[in-house]
Amino acid sequence: MKNLVEQIYTGCLAQGAYYIESKGEAAIIDPLRETAPYIKMAEERGAKIKYVFETHFHADFVSGHVDLAKKTGATIVYGPTAQTTYDVHVATDNEEFKIGDYTITVLHTPGHTMESSTFLLKGADGKPQAIFTGDTLFIGDVGRPDLAVKSDELTKEDLAGMLFDSLHNKILPLPNDVIVYPGHGAGSACGKNISKETTDTLGNQKKTNYALQDLSKDEFIKQVTNGILPPPQYFAKNAMLNKKGYEAIDEVLAKGLNALTPDAFEKAPQKEGVLILDTRAPQEFNKGFVKGAINIGLSGKFAGWVGALIEDLKTPILLVTDEGSEEEAVTRLSRVGYDNPIGFLKGGFKSWENAGKTVDSIKSIPATALEEKMKEGTVSILDVRNPNEYLSQHIEGAVNFPLDYINEHLNELDKDQPFYLHCAGGYRSMIATSILRKQGYHNIVDVTGGFGAIKETGIQLTAYVCPSTL
Q1: 1, 203, 306, 326 — which has fewest CB within 10 A?
Q2: 275 and 228, same structural domain?
Q3: What torsion do the CA atoms of 216, 217, 220, 221 make, to the nearest 10 degrees?
Q4: Could you read off the pLDDT of 312-370 as tens digits, one per residue?
Q5: Is 123 exposed, middle or buried (0-12, 13-18, 19+ CB in 10 A)?
């Protein structure tokens, strides 16, 4: 049986988990919520999962460590200072763990969080082979130092200083040929400049990663703390679940995979606080949907947008999905701590239509039609991209109304005034349009194809120009 190190990368969360195996013993690093893929992999290879290593208390997803340990008997290992309400082994700095011929050494690397640790993998010859860096070191970036800030104790500058020391004392002295396996890739909110590559050599990172260049400690602190956007609202809540434990994934799946007839589905939202979440693609949703539903498509960054926009993790959720996607939707909700889906529409939206139930729809127009509207007179345009996208280039006269912060500004628009919404490609604008529709805005028009399509027209565009200091 060959030794194996395999990255298990999940694109919608830009997250890397890892399977390590030697001589029939296996370890999992930073597993996602669902346990079945890891257990199946070990069983198929005739291996036993001995350890579940956690690089830190994750904020952007709920780890599967608690369930995985219960199902396999594996020991959960955190780095120094970690405190949980369930059984774990809190390792000391430089403590070693054996997996067959492999040795995994815990390197305490605080900075992203206080317990953050990097796991150094050595072969039978004792030579360093790889580091699993979690959110301490990414490809092209380092972890943001603001998530573990406590008002009266640490500042982001304090944590950035710790991160500098961790990198320079624990990671940079390692050989250049050591492979870096990070916790995230491009698209994660845990960094600001993460590369699309998901692995690299340490030597190449020393040459190309801005944070590993010849910077003084003060310069490093300024660079890594500059331009950090506020974290999504669910981050702190997910971190708490990872510290305190959570409902078993099997129970969440059983509850969520409750098939409801159109009649039963129609009655369920009468209970207080129930949210109808339609996970179909935007171009399907706008043609027809259950009144009051919001659209967050499984085809995009589903979990991240759910976490950013649905404020209460305990919200009862009714699902409308493409047939056969129900389990995927429930699983991806659970990855970010939304453990209260209460059922799905059996037969999908088609069954709702066939039952003669009330159907709502959203008007969508192509970018060319928006161009014609603008020629006829003044048009109110809402650009729901993030501020940096908007500043780089936007329609002249458009108002930036970022989707990330839409819940904070829902009452700022005139419900009687028509608005035309767009994002970059159409995914975010349909989310925004559905949320506004649910809040009573009925004069909202979605621009299909988003800014990508708008740039192909003759619509006047502009960009923010930084004022000259001369």
Answers
A1: 1
A2: no
A3: -150
A4: 999 999 999 999 999 999 999 999 999 999 999 999 999 999 999 999 999 999 999 99
A5: middle
Number of Cβ within 10 Å of residue 36's Cβ equals: 15
Could you tell me which of 224, 48, 231, 25 has the C-alpha nearest to residue 148?
231
Q: What pTM was estimated for this model as a whole? A: 0.93
Q: Look-up: residue for tokens 């028509």?
A: 418
The domain tally of the chain equals 3
Q: Looking at the domain assignment, is residue 242 inside a domain?
A: no
Query: 1 in helix, strand or coil?
Result: coil
Using alpha carbons, list the distances in angstroms from residue 251 to 88, 148, 248: 23, 30, 5
* Exposure b/e, 446-465, CB count within 10 A at least 16 = b: bbbbbbebbeebebeeeeee
Question: Do 183 and 256 fall into the same domain?
Answer: no
Residue 356 domain-assigned (yes or no)? yes
| Closest CA relative to residue 362, chosen from 298, 444, 296, 256 | 444
Three-state SS at 334: helix
Distance (Å, whole) CA 300 – CA 188? 13
Token readout for 394 is 């936007």
Task: Kindly provide the residue ranges of all beta strands, DSSP E only, lying in 235-393, ordered along the sequence.
Answer: 259-260, 275-278, 289-290, 294-295, 317-320, 341-345, 359-360, 363-365, 381-383
Contact call for residues 120 and 105 (beta carbons, < 8 A): yes
Question: Which residues does residue 98 pair with via DSSP β-bridges, in sequence order?
Answer: 103
**Residues 57-92 pLDDT 10s:** 999 999 999 999 999 999 999 999 999 999 999 999
Residues 198 and 106 in one domain: yes
Q: Do the beta carbons of residue 249 and residue 337 sit within 8 Å?
A: no
